[in-house]
Amino acid sequence: MGRARRIFPLSSSNLQTSCLLTESDLIEGLQRLEEPAFRALVAQYGDRIYNTVLGLVQRAEDAEDLAQEVFVRVWQSVGSFKREAGLGTWIYRIAVTAALDFRRKQQRHKRGGFLVSLFSRHETEPEAPDFHHPGVAAEQKERSALLFRAIRALPEKQGAAFVLQKLEGLRQDEIAAVLDTTVSSVESLLHRAKQNLRKELAGMMG
C-alpha cells in the first residue's frame, strides 16, 4: 500500500504529540487555538483527509488544495464544535462536503464548456483521472484507473460511501455519522454502488 504525501511538513515531535493527546485534550487545545494541537490534528488526520478527498475529486493538485482548505475550516470553526459527533466524524464530514461541492462546481463548468464546444470545430476528449491513489499498489495502477472512473460516475452519496468504506476502512456506522444518515441507508448506498460499479466496469471492458 502506498502513502499519501504530507500536505503539511511534520516533525517527529508532532507525530508523538498526536499519539499522546486524547481526543478531548486535542479538542480543547484546538478550541484554545493552540498551534501544537493543530499540528497534532494534521499529523493524525492529514493523510486520511487527503486520501478521502483524492478518491472523490481524482486529481492530486485539487485534492491537496481541498485538504488544506478542510483544515483551515476546522481551525476557523472548531470553537463552535459541539461534540455531538466524534472529532474524526466531524472532519470527514467537512472533507466530503468540500469535495462534493468542488465536483458540482466542476460539473457546472463542464456543462458551460459543452455549450461552447457546440460552436467549436475542435472536439474535446473526456478527461481520464489524473492521479495515482496512494492506497493502490503501483502494479494495479491501470486497473485502478478504470475503477476510479467508475467511482466518479456514481451518484454522489454512493461514491462517498464507497470511498469511505473501501479506501478509508470506515465502518458502516461511522459512514452513517459522516453522511448524516442511518446505517440501513449506508447499507443500501453501498449495495447500489457495487451494482453500479459492476455495470460501469463491464461497459468499459466490454
From TrEMBL:
Pfam families cross-referenced by the UniProt entry: Sigma70_r2 (PF04542), Sigma70_r4_2 (PF08281)
GO biological process: DNA-templated transcription initiation
RNA polymerase sigma-70 region domain boundaries: 41-108
Gene3D superfamilies: 1.10.1740.10, Winged helix-like DNA-binding domain superfamily/Winged helix DNA-binding domain
UniProt superkingdom: Bacteria
Gene Ontology MF, one: DNA binding
UniProt KW keywords: DNA-binding, Sigma factor, Transcription, Transcription regulation
PROSITE patterns recorded: SIGMA70_ECF
RNA polymerase sigma factor 70 region 4 type domain span: 147-197
UniProt cross-references to PANTHER family, sorted A to Z: RNA POLYMERASE ECF-TYPE SIGMA FACTO, RNA POLYMERASE SIGMA FACTOR HI_1459-RELATED
Family the entry assigns: Belongs to the sigma-70 factor family. ECF subfamily.
Protein name: RNA polymerase sigma factor
Organism of derivation: Flaviaesturariibacter aridisoli
